[in-house]
Amino acid sequence: MKTALVTGANKGIGLEVAKQLSQNGLFVYIGSRNLNSGQDAAKKLSAEGFENVKAIQLDVTDPQSIQAAKNLIATETGSLDILINNAGISGGFQQSALATGSDVFKTVYETNVFGVVDVTQAMLELLKKSEEPRIVNVSTSMASLNLAADLSNANYPTRYVAYQSSKAALNMYTINLAYELRDTTFKVNAVCPGWTKTDFTGYQGTSTAEEAAQRIIKFALIDKHGPTGQFFSEEYFPAPANCPW
Ligand code: NAP
User: Fold this and answer.
1) Is there a domain that residue 151 lies in?
2) 35 in ligand 1 pocket by Cβ < 6 Å?
3) CA angle, corner 167, sides to 165 and 170, nearest 5?
4) Nearest residue to 121 via CA among 188, 219, 169, 55
5) Cβ of residue 160 lying under 6 Å from some atom of ligand 1
6) Could you tell me if the CB of 138 is within 6 A of ligand 1?
7) pLDDT tens for each residue of the chain, 245 residues long
8) CATH classification at residue 55
9) Within a 10 A sphere around the Cβ of 150, how many other Cβ atoms?
10) Any domain includes 240
11) Is 38 in the pocket of ligand 1 (CB under 6 A)?
12) How many domains does the chain have?
């Protein structure tokens, strides 16, 4: 049975990604910085009939937590086939380039960028043991330089500078990682889940978590002919009216 790790999977899009990967026959580690919350999520999925899931304590900003998660997966399964870097924070709203302090940037980058780098590098040894390793980094169309610079397109606001720039950095990390792994069987892509009704958006949005997860797992399950080093966003071209995400 193939194995997947989803970060920030105790709720929202990550939980739905875990459910759909389980539905596709994978054993799924539900990464959760609060283990109780992850265990509650795993119990909920098991009660729905998805028993091939297990909560794992994983705070992506804590090197010790990352190392412990890696060691546990190494002991239990010995390898990892799919890593979904889903955990993310917004840092609050109305982040102005003129006024938002570097403390906010640092907090957001700790999770959205450095957390992804640390988790990915820690899990690489396990991913390399898979025949077809896949990494999906959950990003956003709000990180698009082209869309944000297009002042005629009011649906792509530039009001979330720490969040937007963190995901732009994530996109560039994705491309660099894929490039360095180009002569291997790895596929590494960044995916926008769409504007999704979760805690993150105050349950505003045009997509359900189920639809968002479908967009993500598509790139976790691609075969050897699939793309690598790309950014995908299917909901956002064109953007839904008044969409801030
Ligand atoms: P959500 O419901 O707020 O879930 C975020 C998840 O990330 C939670 O499980 C949260 O855990 C976890 N998390 C935050 N910091 C963490 C840390 N340091 N270590 C481990 N886990 C951490 O948000 P969502 O909408 O599902 O978002 C998931 C991803 O999609 C994010 O990367 C977000 O940027 C991206 N995205 C969302 C939308 C949207 O419209 N919703 C659009 C584009 C991209 P706790 O429960 O402990 O806080």
Assistant:
1) yes
2) no
3) 115
4) 188
5) no
6) yes
7) 999 999 999 999 999 999 999 999 999 999 999 999 999 999 999 999 998 999 999 999 999 999 999 999 999 999 999 999 999 999 998 899 999 999 999 999 999 999 999 999 999 999 999 999 999 999 999 898 888 887 776 666 668 999 999 999 999 999 999 999 999 999 999 999 999 999 999 999 999 999 999 999 999 999 999 999 999 998 654 455 555 54
8) 3.40.50.720
9) 12
10) no
11) no
12) 1
Q: Could you check whether the bond before residue 238 is cis, i.e. omega within 30 degrees of 0? A: yes
In angstroms, the CA 20 to CA 83 distance is 14
- Please name the residue whose Cα sits nearest to atom 44 of ligand 1: 140
The C-alpha atoms of residue 129 and residue 125 are separated, in whole angstroms, by 7
Give me the residue label for tokens 């709203």.
93
Say if 125 falls within a structural domain. yes
- What would the two tokens of residue 217 be? 């797992």
Cα 183 to ligand 1 centroid, rounded to whole Å? 32
- The answer to whether 167 is a known catalytic residue is yes
Residue 202 resides in a domain: yes
What does pTM read for this prediction?
0.96
Range of the domain at 82: 3-233
> CA 61 to CA 64: how far, in whole Å?
9
